[in-house]
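Standup notes
- DV: blocked on the single-chain target, sequence here:
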Amino acid sequence: MTLLDLCSYLGLGAAGAATLNLLLGLLMSMRYSPVRMWPHRRINVFMLHQWTAYLTVALTVTHPLVLLFQSTRVFRVVDLIWPLHSPLQPTLNTVGALAAYLVLLIVGSSLLRTQIGRPVWRRLHYLAFPMMLLLFIHSILTDPELKDGHPDLLDGGKIFLEIACVVSIAAVVARLWRRGRGLRPVTKSTWESFNGPTSSE
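- DV (later): unblocked, structure below
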């Protein structure tokens, strides 16, 4: 396995962890209960959401660091921090760097939630959506071989990313569709809050 392969695998892992983290966050926002719903087990969804966030940070940070140790293309530290003038694919690398900075901001604000207050934390947490958009643009369109800048979109890794992108979009659309209702059972009071009181016969 080459260093470029390792860089690609770390990037795929970061995208997968970020997608799982997004899905868990959306489920939590819809008041998903693993006891009441599938798999009918006591699972600490919040802890899973927390640890997938930490995993996303770890993989996101180590993903570009590998480039410092490969010899075919010389990347400097500044090319990773601010890749506007990086040797290859500077635009897509900048998009990836912006996604990484948003990941750090979101997770960092969660760690400081009690200090900054819930309203500020909540607004910063919405940055997860543009972060995911930037992440998928970077990861899908980047050439992992650092050759001609034209990736094979039917490569196994790219197909994984494309599926993750479609799943993420579908999950966000479902969350917007269930806005105000979540995954709670529809009761009479819930129905009336959306459709008005029913006339008694």
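- Follow-up: The radius of gyration is 20 Å.
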